[in-house]
Amino acid sequence: MIWGGLGWDYKSELVFIKKLPGRRGIYSKAYLQQVLQPIIFPLFNRLGLEYIFIEDGSKVHAGSARLPRLSHSIRGFKWPPSSPDLNPIEKVWRWMKEELKKLGYVPKSIEDLKRELQKLWDQVDPRDFRHYTE
């Protein structure tokens, strides 16, 4: 699973979430440990709590991740199901997918794909997406 954050003149690092030992997939505890604790909680400590943190409907955003987010007083948004067109980060993911299709080759390994995704993420300028985050 890949995670990235976007806001007004803000872009997070790109996170390739790793599954935790003994688990078959990514779940909310991995999201909590690899995204919320190291990136989001410190960001909201710096910015203040008047901002709204928008997540999509992924199951990893619930469970073990929900209560710690609430305990940090980070306001969320009750996201309508199946409405990616409203979420600004979805515009970035769509652009990245289209750019991947334009590559002169197909990445043959996870590491090749990660490298290409990171190159694309590095090109993302949050100012280009202001009209979505406004």
Automatic annotation (TrEMBL):
Pfam family of the protein (one): DDE_3
Taxonomically, the superkingdom here is Eukaryota
The Tc1-like transposase DDE domain extends over: 10-109
Listed GO MF terms = nucleic acid binding
Q: What is the name of this protein?
A: Tc1-like transposase DDE domain-containing protein
